[in-house]
Amino acid sequence: LTNSSIDSRMSIAARRRRLAAVRGEDLIFSGITAHVAIPSNKQGQFTRLIVAGGGTTLERITDENIEDITHVLTESRYLPSIQGKLSSLSNMGIPVVQPIYLSDYLTNEKYPQVDNYLVEEYKAFWEKKKRSRVTTDTPTNPLKKNRN
């Protein structure tokens, strides 16, 4: 097996997770509450993976449960199913990522950056909200700049 082959990455990930279990660490997807926004006939594999890894999934995004969601998994072609929620999701800092994020989350040594997995049509929402969340320690008021 080569180090970059998928079989190698899966073997290494499995070993890492077995060792983590022996050390009493949480399951890989503990703390993740995801909405899988793809057709129901394709959801099963992703839902089973998340649940087996200690996460949870929600069938729908509602006003009552949106605060519980940590990730939304979808592809560009299925985005219309959640189109009306994109602004709310970005305002709450909830990433809308491609399903490959799960594989990389599982197999990479370091957790992947969600920015690299965002669904293309969601990036504008995410970036706009991200900029509004960024703070600076450089004062913008001229009077504050001159204080020592």
Tell me what you see in this structure.
The protein has 148 residues and is of the alpha/beta class. 40% of the residues lie in helices and 8% in strands. It is built from six helices and four strands, in the order αβαββαβααα. Strands 2-1-3-4 form a four-stranded parallel beta sheet, with helices on one face. Mean pLDDT is 82; it is low at 135-148.
* Mean pLDDT level: 82
Low-confidence stretches: 135-148
Strand order of the largest sheet: 2-1-3-4
Percent helix range = 25-40%
Name the helix and strand elements from N-terminus to C-terminus, one letter apiece.
HEHEEHEHHH
Question: In this structure, how is the largest beta sheet organized?
Answer: 4 strands, parallel
Structural class: alpha/beta
C-alpha Rg, in Å? 19 Å
Give the beta-strand count.
4
Strand content: 5-15%
Anisotropy-based shape: globular
Give short descriptive properties of this protein.
alpha/beta, globular, four-stranded parallel sheet, 148 residues
Write a compact overview of the structure shown.
The chain has 148 residues and is of the alpha/beta class.
Please describe the topology of this protein:
Blueprint: H1 6-22, E1 33-36, H2 40-52, E2 56-58, E3 71-73, H3 86-91, E4 96-97, H4 100-107, H5 123-133, H6 142-145
Parallel strand pairs: 1-2, 1-3, 3-4
